[in-house]
Amino acid sequence: MNSRTTPSVVQKAGRIIVKVGSSLVTNDGRGLDQAAIARWAAQIAALRALGKQVVLVSSGAIAEGMLRLGFEHRPTDVHELQACAAVGQMGLAQIYETSFRAHGIGTAQVLLTHADLADRERYLNARSTLTTLLSLGVVPIINENDTVVTDEIKFGDNDTLGALVANLIEADVLIILTDQRGLFSADPRKDPAAFLITNGIAGDPQLEAMAGGAGSSLGRGGMLTKILAARRAAKSGAHTVIAFGREEGVLTRLASGEAIGTELQAQTGHLTARKQWMADHLHTLGQVVIDAGAVEKLSREGKSLLPIGVLEVRGEFGRGAVITCISEKGVPIARGITNYTSGEARRILRKPSAEIEAVLGFVEGRELIHRDNLVLL
Ligand SMILES: Nc1ncnc2c1ncn2[C@@H]1O[C@H](COP(=O)(O)OP(=O)(O)O)[C@@H](O)[C@H]1O
Ligand SMILES: N[C@@H](CCC(=O)OP(=O)(O)O)C(=O)O
């Protein structure tokens, strides 16, 4: 497992999630590490100049809030923790905005909870907002919305949050920057003989056995949540790299193909992962009956399904639901993720896409189902 066999996944990536842990961001709890943050901002600016889109998931709100409020130890009271997070988050937002501004790049604060990603409508909204921010050239800075969450509904650690964001926007790579050079064969703080694992397969149970808990009282997750995050990220086809955040030029060097830290490869590509997910939906909530022309476009030409080819909408479904496309004779043709609810689809069926806005007052896409979200049966 110790030699890298594939070219760098970061080099090839178009969309990257960078996650930075609390101990890195707050200089081991001594306060926001302005110099380190400025270095990451400069490197992310360089990645952007290479045409890559970057989302930053940053921890450190609680650690910074503790410092600002004078707590010497991490409070156990949940409301005190939430107060720390609220205070510390101001510091994070301020320092990221200033650091990226130095490179002419705008930032956006996005605070997410588990409920936001569990609810289909909010999930889609979060996805659209993030992709819009990226297309506007902004770097979204994401953290958990600690002030409103309780234990049962927490992500709890930002490694998991980073993976879910990778799934949400189908990132190519999740880079987890931490206070170790990567995954070691055992916790290097406890075992001096531990050696660095340079590459592996995301989801390999052997990796989980090597990873222990958090090394300091600042971090929540430890190495295990990073390994589990890699497994989760791989579900949507994202690879994971775990590396030391203070390594000079870590992000730009990774982007130039250098082997740094631990690279955990996803076994499935984006499209395969999404199609597998759709294929797993045996019971779809709705069906659309499509005309012979649409059957031809989908099955022979690999095109998207446009509203004009839809004859009838059956069942009730929301935006983002997986629905089945059937022919007039009732033969299942394809399954895919709909851009419109059943009610909206009924209003736009048989209409040219140019009329969607006039009918609905908005456009979610010119297709009812985009070809990337369609799997033939
Ligand atoms: N097998 C391992 N390899 C590397 N680090 C490990 C391993 N097992 C446990 N750890 C611990 O995980 C810590 C990193 O996790 P954590 O403290 O949560 O950092 P972060 O704040 O970056 O998320 C390391 O400092 C290390 O002590
Ligand atoms: N939302 C919390 C993050 C907690 C957390 O996951 O920390 P870490 O293990 O350092 O990434 C905060 O900003 O303090």
From TrEMBL:
The terms describing its cellular component in GO are: cytosol
**What is the protein's name according to its record?**
Glutamate 5-kinase
| EC number, UniProt record | 2.7.2.11
Organism per entry: Pseudoduganella umbonata
Q: Which gene encodes it?
A: proB
Q: Which residues form the PUA domain?
A: 286-369
Q: Which GO terms describe its biological process?
A: L-proline biosynthetic process
Q: Which family does it belong to?
A: Belongs to the glutamate 5-kinase family.
The Gene Ontology terms for molecular function here are: ATP binding; glutamate 5-kinase activity; RNA binding
Q: Which residues bind ATP?
A: K19, T178, D179
